[in-house]
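User: Before I run my own analysis I want an independent prediction to cross-check against. Here's the chain; please return only the structure tokens and, at the end, one sentence I can use as a sanity check.
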Amino acid sequence: MITTEQIKELRDRTGISITQCKKALKDATGDINQALAFLKEKGTEIAEKKSSRELRAGVVSAYVHAGGKLGALVQVHSETDFVARNNDFKIFTDDLAMQIAAMNPADIAELLAQPFIKDPALTINDLVKNHIQKFGERIEIARFVRLDANN
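Assistant: Structure tokens:
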């Protein structure tokens, strides 16, 4: 039997809806790690299904490192302004800007392949897919720039 505590733990770890967490735990017979793997696989499927949707909204987020000598801007598109204004989306895009400042990727493909600095078990691509699953919308990193006053 799946407990409320298990569902809460999975939701806290993923940010994904209670219904999806409950289903993942049921399919994984209560095993949290299997449920996480199931949600990751499901996230990939959801991202693929939404890949043709039109992007009409988005945000630009900035990160400036202490001292003001290093910073990054990232533009991330979403389907709707509702998602673009969501606080969790803002945190996600701020994390992307920090990732870019810290890891200095050459392009979007390299950025997507990088381990996420806050959770190296995830790549940035995994992080994007998780947020597509969480928000139920297509999300895409459009462009970014990293600025270094020392170079």
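Sanity check: The longest strand covers residues 139-148.
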